[in-house]
Automatic annotation (TrEMBL):
The keyword RNA-binding does not apply. PANTHER family: RNA POLYMERASE II TRANSCRIPTIONAL COACTIVATOR. The chain crosses the membrane at residues 183-204. Residues 69-88 have a biased composition (Acidic residues). The lineage of its organism: Eukaryota, Viridiplantae, Streptophyta, Embryophyta, Tracheophyta. It is found in: Nucleus. Pfam families: DEK_C, PC4. This is DEK-C domain-containing protein. It comes from Fraxinus pennsylvanica. InterPro entries: DEK_C, PC4_C, ssDNA-bd_transcriptional_reg, Sub1/Tcp4-like. SUPFAM superfamilies: DEK C-terminal domain, ssDNA-binding transcriptional regulator domain. GO terms for cellular component: nucleus. Keywords: DNA-binding, Membrane, Nucleus, Transcription, Transcription regulation, Transmembrane, Transmembrane helix.
């Protein structure tokens, strides 16, 4: 068999392989289909061996591509997990939890509502706001209320039960509101905000 005919047979076999269901086709079917297209008798032992070599080479190449793709997917998953872990660590650095915008999370009143202290245009804000998820991040909605520390001054702790959360609760931002969570959820938004502002001011004053 000459080189030109070999090339034609190889190209035809590869074309058939690319358009075939590899779970159903067989070497015999491929060889027969190539024989019909080229009008060449490929049942000769020499041609059988050549077609088998082309098929085996193709299968090895496809297997290599599949393994490489699997490795790349695993690598991407690992990188995504590392990024998520890093973001989580950043949000909880120093035992404190931060949101995706860098605000300090004082407590979570529900899955969607939280109390935060954040900096905005050089001012410190105390906020109760609802959040929604998009692209794996929690973003604030327009529903809620925010006050600067100066606006919070009238709501001073000396006017409300003189509570010191650092004395009666564990000194952890994650647990400060733990015992009050159920009660807070039963209050109106204004009462919740009034009470939380008092606690937030104490936290803000005592934070380094």
């Amino acid at each position: 068999m000459d080189a030109e005919t070999q090339q034609r047979v190889e190209e035809t076999v590869l074309e058939i392989l690319n358009n075939s269901n590899m779970e159903e086709t067989t070497e015999y079917k491929i060889r027969k289909s190539a024989s019909e297209k080229l009008r060449i008798d490929l049942s000769d032992p020499t041609w059988k061996k050549f077609v088998r070599q082309v098929v085996e080479s193709y299968l090895q190449e496809q297997q290599g591509k599949a393994e490489q793709q699997e490795e790349e997917e695993e690598k991407e998953e690992e990188e995504e997990e590392e990024e998520e872990e890093e973001e989580e660590n950043n949000r909880k650095r120093g035992g404190k939890e931060y949101d995706d915008e860098g605000g300090l999370i004082i407590c979570r009143l529900s899955d969607k509502r939280r109390v935060t202290i954040s900096d905005f245009r050089g001012k410190t804000l105390v906020s109760i706001r609802e959040y929604y998820k998009r692209d794996g991040k929690e973003l604030p909605t327009a529903k809620g209320i925010s006050l600067t520390v100066d606006q919070c001054r009238p709501v001073d702790t000396r006017h409300v039960w003189k509570i010191d959360p650092f004395r009666i609760l564990k000194p952890s931002f994650g647990s400060i509101f733990g015992g009050f969570k159920t009660a807070l959820l039963n209050l109106s938004l204004h009462l919740v905000f009034y009470y939380v502002i008092c606690i937030a001011i104490i936290i803000f004053k005592r934070s380094p």
